[in-house]
User: Which sequence fits this backbone?
């Protein structure tokens, strides 16, 4: 579904990604783990068109989408939930969800999907007309995911969904991520610092270190890998 | 008492025009975080557009008349919308990723460029030209109160445009997108919003409002000339800051307040020559206590 070959990104003269290749098969959950500054977020930002790639190819559903404008990439069904949620704090919960459906014209379908979002995240329904800037971090994360689902994506990229969120909400958010993948067949590329959690919900994983792929393998095998256990799982 | 109502009407009429101009400054600031100094020149171009369109449509639609005035205003607004979009495209878009100061200085450059090009005798010339009468005007006498129908038109048009703008920004898809872009451009792009299109739309909308303001201003002024936008432009910019830059109701409120301050202080005999000094001293005081402007809020984003 998503194939990246030798992706290179630089901020000015500082290289952030030194030619990364990875594959995300259809309907799977693939995770990118690694320390701060490993290039995980940069990777997602380059795929979704927020930063320019200096080299390499991003192929989505067989099409070369390298360096396309971000709004054209969303239109193709590849949706990025950025780090820090980036919900529109000055818009209400409902307006945020409607922004997620910006490219859709089917009014009835949008209304039905808003209702569906509320069954997935009931807490959002209670806050429907509240400005989203007044939500808690966890609620904002739920809103960010729900908003992304409003675009009817085939592939979802999630950047640190657990960041700064109460542990009890982290669990429920990750349950929903798994459900989104299983029940709706949405392919997921998950970036996480919480490697333990990420490797438990995903099928395949890549370990990034300073802009390079250090290791890759099935998530089960990575969890057993002594190097991963020591550096990322806190053993 | 009559004095008070007379100044109130004059102040509201003047303030309405400031409000319309201030909306353009604040909208552009909202999406791009810089002050488009060329905005005041778009206002002047709006007045000139009307100046040239009026005689052109005269054979078809009699002037002064309501239909005629509406047509002239509509065409001028469309022309200015196009000019605003063009200014953004040519001057500001190439600098989108540059520091804001670069864009700000460019905006001053664009403003001076328009002003001095228009002053050239091959363009408009520097002399003051009489503005055509677009609307039949009458003066109403209420007791000793003198109300010009033009003042009422100015206030009516302003209220109408404010309501219209509020509707567009709050209730339509493009307005929601404008607010989204204003909050975070990248996040808006990830929703599938074409940022450039929204920015063009914002410039077009603000410039169309400036054109209407320019025509209303010209209706009250002795004539039009290429620097006519400078004074109301600076005041409207201050009005936008006073109301809380980036905040639409704030811009309207700031404009009205500034217009009222100016006429009330100017109406006190003996103080009229200190009009601007006193009006601006009050503004400085307000900003000392409310640095974000009257309606400006510190953001409520949680992280």
Assistant:
């Amino acid at each position: 579904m998503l194939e990246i070959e030798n992706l290179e990104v630089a901020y000015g003269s500082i290289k952030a990604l030194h030619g990364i290749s990875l594959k995300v098969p259809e309907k799977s959950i693939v995770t990118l783990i690694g320390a701060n500054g490993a290039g995980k977020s940069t990777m997602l930002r380059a795929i979704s068109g927020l930063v320019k790639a200096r080299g390499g190819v991003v192929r989505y559903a067989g099409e070369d989408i390298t360096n396309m404008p971000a709004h054209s990439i969303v239109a193709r069904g590849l949706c990025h939930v950025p780090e820090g949620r980036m919900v529109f704090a000055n818009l209400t919960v409902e307006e945020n969800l409607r922004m997620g459906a910006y490219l859709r014209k089917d009014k009835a379908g949008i209304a039905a999907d808003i209702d569906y979002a509320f069954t997935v995240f009931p807490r959002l329904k209670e806050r429907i007309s509240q400005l989203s800037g007044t939500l808690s971090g966890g609620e904002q994360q739920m809103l960010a995911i729900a908003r992304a689902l409003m675009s009817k994506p085939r592939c979802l990229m999630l950047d640190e969904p657990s960041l700064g969120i109460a542990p009890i909400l982290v669990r429920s958010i990750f349950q929903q991520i798994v459900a989104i993948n299983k029940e709706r067949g949405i392919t997921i590329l998950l970036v996480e610092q919480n490697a333990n959690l990420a490797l438990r919900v995903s099928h395949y994983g890549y370990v990034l270190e300073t802009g390079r792929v250090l290791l890759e393998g099935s998530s089960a095998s990575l969890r057993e890998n002594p190097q991963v256990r020591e550096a990322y799982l806190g053993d | 008492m009559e004095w008070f109502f007379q100044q109130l009407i004059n102040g509201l009429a003047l303030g309405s025009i400031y409000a319309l101009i201030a909306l353009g400054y604040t909208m552009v600031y909202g999406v791009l975080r810089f002050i488009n100094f060329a905005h005041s020149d778009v206002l002047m171009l709006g007045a000139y557009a009307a100046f040239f369109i009026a005689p052109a449509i005269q054979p078809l639609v009699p002037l002064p008349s309501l239909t005629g005035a509406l047509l002239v205003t509509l065409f001028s607004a469309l022309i200015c919308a196009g000019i605003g979009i063009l200014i953004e495209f040519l001057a500001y878009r190439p600098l989108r990723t540059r520091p804001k100061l670069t864009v700000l200085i460019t905006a001053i450059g664009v403003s001076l460029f328009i002003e001095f090009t228009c002053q050239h005798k091959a363009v408009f010339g520097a002399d003051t030209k009489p503005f055509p009468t677009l609307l039949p005007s009458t003066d109403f006498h209420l007791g000793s109160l003198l109300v010009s129908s033009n003042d009422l038109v100015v206030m009516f048009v302003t209220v109408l445009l404010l309501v219209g703008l509020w509707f567009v920004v709050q209730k339509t898809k493009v307005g929601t997108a404008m607010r989204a872009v204003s909050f975070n451009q990248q996040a808006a792009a990830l929703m599938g919003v074409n940022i450039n299109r929204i920015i063009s739309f914002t410039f077009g909308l603000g410039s169309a409002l400036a054109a209407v303001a320019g025509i209303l201003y010209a209706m009250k002024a002795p004539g039009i000339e290429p620097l006519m936008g400078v004074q109301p432009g600076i005041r409207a910019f201050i009005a936008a800051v006073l109301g809380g830059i980036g905040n639409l109701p704030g811009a309207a409120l700031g404009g009205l307040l500034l217009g009222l301050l100016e006429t009330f202080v100017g109406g006190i005999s003996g103080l009229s020559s200190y009009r601007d000094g006193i009006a601006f001293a009050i503004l400085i005081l307000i900003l000392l206590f409310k640095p974000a402007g009257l309606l400006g809020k510190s953001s409520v984003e949680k992280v």
